[in-house]
Structures are given as C-alpha cells and as structure tokens.
Predict the structure of Ubiquinone/menaquinone biosynthesis C-methyltransferase UbiE.
Amino acid sequence: SYGFAKVAGREEKQARVNDVFHKVARRYDLMNDLMSGGLHRLWKDAMVSWLSPPRRPGWRFVDVAGGTGDIAQRIVRASGDNAEGTVLDINASMLEVGAERAKKRGFDKNLTFIEGNAEALDLPDETFDAYTIAFGIRNVPRIDKALAEAHRVLKPGGRFLCLEFSEVDVPGLDRLYDVWSFKAIPAIGERVAGDRDSYEYLVESIRRFPNQANFASMIGVAGFERVTHRNLSGGIAAIHSAWKF
Ligand code: SAM
C-alpha cells in the first residue's frame, strides 16, 4: 500500500480514499475511538468551542468532508439547535449513515446531506457564515482548490476552521506516536475492519500532510486573513482558524 500511494495520481488517490470510506462507513466512529483512544471527541469539541456558533436562527454553516455528520451535530447542539448546516461528502455510504443518524437524533430539520467534492463545491458564492472541515482536507488531492472553494462559499466576515492531524512537537511523544501509527493503527485496522492496507494508507496520508506553519501559509494564499492555529495533544492534531473579509 505504501508503494501504491507514492505512485498514485490524483484520480487514483481519490479512488483509494473513496474505497476506504465505503468500507468503513458503518464502523467509522468505532474506528475513530479505537485509533485515537477517544481523543477525537475532545479535539472535535475543541473545534466547535473555538467556533462557538451563535444561538440564533439563520446562522449557516457547511461541514465539508462531513462524513457521518459528527461535527455538524456538535455544531447544531452548541448553537442551541438553531444553526442550519449542510454536510457535504464525496462518499454516499458515509452520508447515508449520517442522514440516518441525524434523523434518529432529531437533527434532520437542521441538517442537509449532499454528495459533492471539496475541490469543486456545487454551492453558491458567499452563502455560509462558517466553513468547517475535520480530518477531511488531508484526503483531498488538491488542497489549494479546496481552500479556494472554502473562501468562495463563505460570506464576507465568514469563518474557516479546519481540524487535521499535524506535526507532533513534543520530544519523546513523537517516537511513541510513530509506534502507535505504524504498528498499532494498521493492526487495529486489520482486526476490527479486516483491512490493514487502508489503515496503512491513512497513516501515510497523515505523514504527508503539511505541518502547522506550511498549512497556515496555504490558507493565506487562498485569500484568508487572521490565520492562526492551536495544537491539540502536543500537535498530534491542530485546528487552523481564518477569516474571509
Ligand atoms: N469529518 C468527519 C469526522 O471528523 O468524523 C469525517 C472525516 S473522514 C476521516 C474523511 C471524509 O472525507 C470521508 O467521509 C471521505 O469520504 C471524505 N472525503 C474524501 N475526499 C473528499 C473530497 N474530495 N471531497 C469531499 N469529501 C471527501
């Protein structure tokens, strides 16, 4: 799988990613819990609390690569059930799980699930007060296109927030994290999802993603201002925040 990813072109990369998420859709949240030791929940809460959506009707957000709607539900809850969200994902299996779950939990009046590609959003200009993307942008072949699209669909004054794996900056933790990534995660993938290759691929995609500073400059290039970031768990993940003016 390492060899595959190294030679893969954009289409192959996207096809590979699609395949992974079709396979894991139903077990996706369980896998997240196992692989992050439950930390992904704290990281997602940190993103939503940094966003702090207003508790008033009419505030709109789009959660890109929103998968099973986990982030979107947290945002709606934090807004006192006022926010209106669009959950966009390239993968119909993830969206299906998300839409079912939203209905069961009574979030269906707040959330719309649509299939689409982060690189070319089928959404009008200047529509949203916030654009969020969690553990998604790493999977998009052309990150610069996704960022340009984020900028386009935000209203002036709109907020961009991205949660993604990043570069560990704590001595000692980096070695532990390597063992976890290259040994434990593929093993968990094999045991729980019966798919070692896909999880090796995901680990590799984390390592290839730009670090905090480089990603911040890409966000700036897309036209955003006031780009800042916060590290989570020693940089295992980071949240980048920026504004469109
Ligand atoms: N945001 C969710 C969360 O945090 O639980 C899901 C994250 S999951 C790791 C990555 C998601 O990105 C998958 O649902 C996948 O289908 C989606 N994805 C991958 N490439 C995409 C693209 N080009 N456009 C939109 N979504 C994409």
